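Incident log, structure service

09:12 report received: a user says their structure output differs between two submissions of the same chain.
09:20 pulled the input from the user's history:
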Amino acid sequence: MQTTYVHAFEEVFGIVLGIIRSVFINFRSYQFDAKEIVITVFNYGGCTNTMKAKTGLIALLIVISSFLFLKNIPVCGQAENRELPAAGNPDATGSVNTIDALTGVIQVIRELGKEIEDKKTKLHEAETHEERSEISKEIDKLNERLESLRVNFEEIATGLDLETFYAKPQKRFDWKEEIQTLIGPIINDLKSITARPRLIENLRTQVDYYEKQIFLVRNAIENIHNLAAQVKGENLKNQLIDLETEWYNKGKQISSQLTVAKYQLADKLSERKSFLESSKNIVQVFFKSRGRNFVLSVLAFLFVFFLLRYIHRHIYRGSFIHKTVASSFYIRLAEVLYYVLTFVGATGALLIVLYICGDWVLLGIAFIFIIGLIWAAKQTLPRFYEQGTLLLNLGTVKENERVIYNGLPWKVASLHLYTLLVNPELKGGMLRIPIRDLKDIRSRPYHPDEPWFPCKENDWVLLADGTMGRVVTQTPETVQLIIGGGSYKTYPTEEFLKQNPTNISRNFRVNVTFGIDYQYQSISTTEIPDKLREMIKAGLINEGYGNDIIKLTVEFKAVGDSSLDYIILADFSGQVAKDYYKLSRIIQKIALNTCNKFGWEIPYTTYTIHTAPSQSQQRISVPIQPTTDTAKVTETSS
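09:34 re-ran on a clean worker, output below:
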């Protein structure tokens, strides 16, 4: 048998290697032929029967699902040398809009250049330091506007964002900056995905701003023009005319900037795509770089992890050692080490993929994450130690012992990362709980005769609250009874146990107390018990309970205040458990008929009245109602 499993493992391993080799060869040439891969599976695995074919197809599914979505793209998302896209032939409307925008910008640049030259001439002609300083500031502002217009012209002509094009990475050497360097590229990828909507919103803000500026400039020009019309002095009027000209030029510059912003906004809005196309572009951007590396590394982690778990599961099911000495300390120790190595191997596969892809950013983040896990593990080391002792069957809970969990008894069927608890008396009595939930629980060996629940389905029970019914369903959560009239009553299982249920489905006893008058004192302990027993037994047989009577006893119980009391003890088999209350009534009826037959009187309930101390005490018996028990009421007055 062991040789068979060794061969099976070798076949599985050969299948996996064959698939990986075939996929790798096709992957490097960016070609995926599913038919070729399937043929490779059966060639390498030698799948000549159903079991081998099933194993091969499982391995095939795992590998192909890991690589199929990467068809026609590089294996790792590394930096690529992208060629500039070939310029297409724009439509007539787009060309006209672009040319008009460029023409407007050039015109404003020329006018602004002339204005700067005029300012420079005035600077040379200025006589005072204050005038030269003021003119220099104006020239600086005009130069800034001129530079902005040149940038706009270049951006329109090239279709590039020059600020992003000329941006250079900062080189600072501190630990905060290094962390930002690791995380920054990922943030940049996310920003690139949302760049277009953010750019559109920014352009809309610029358009609103320039429109407000133009409105203010028009008001300013109108105010200056009105003032100039009212002024008669030549000198002041010339100053106002120059000021009006200056503000007019400002308006033209702002109008040009508004034209550029509107053009850029219209250009971006014309590129609006459907949600499906946008999603496709986002996915392409994601898988062109680190997103692809991240997905590959995660797939490698999952592939190795589930492959090792798959191998472990088949070894556990088929190994002769696990079936015979599964609870051995060394077997459990090997399983714990296997769990640890499974996680280590899967993590190593993740890191190796990132290393091969050369993605140092994700590799660094992965190392930081692993170091963080190790650092956090020291806080949880005691908890891991407790769980390790439980897995080794050395803790407070051991396999094949009895525990109390959620108020119910359970058998520890298997002790692993997910422990299996079983209660054979409950419907659905099987729980899978994580091993961490067992840290505060204690188990003990149990005897084979110990009950796992006080009743079974279809048993009749009596509860502390007076309820009697037949158990219809009992699960780990609820117990349902069918009571008189066919109605159902449901208890939470823990509450049901708190009612101290009495199971009467095996055997049960009915207790009845009966009293007769004092005048029969002479035969109260000899003749009456025997006759009463014979009559009750005959009456029960006549009622159809003869085969269910186990034992019937009538005994003198006590001397009451006004009667001689007898206790009737009748034991029945569980087959008549549903008639528990009915049997009590039948026994009282038979006892009453017996008294009528033999002329035995049943005492009345009486009052005992005490007179004043100076008078003699009298006992007055006042009949209330006939009764079959010995209840009395005594009142004392003075």
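09:41 both user submissions now match this output. Likely a transient worker issue. Closing.
09:42 reviewer note: Confidence is low (pLDDT under 50) at residues 1-10, 19-73, 78-92, 614-638. The first strand starts at residue 402 and ends at 405.
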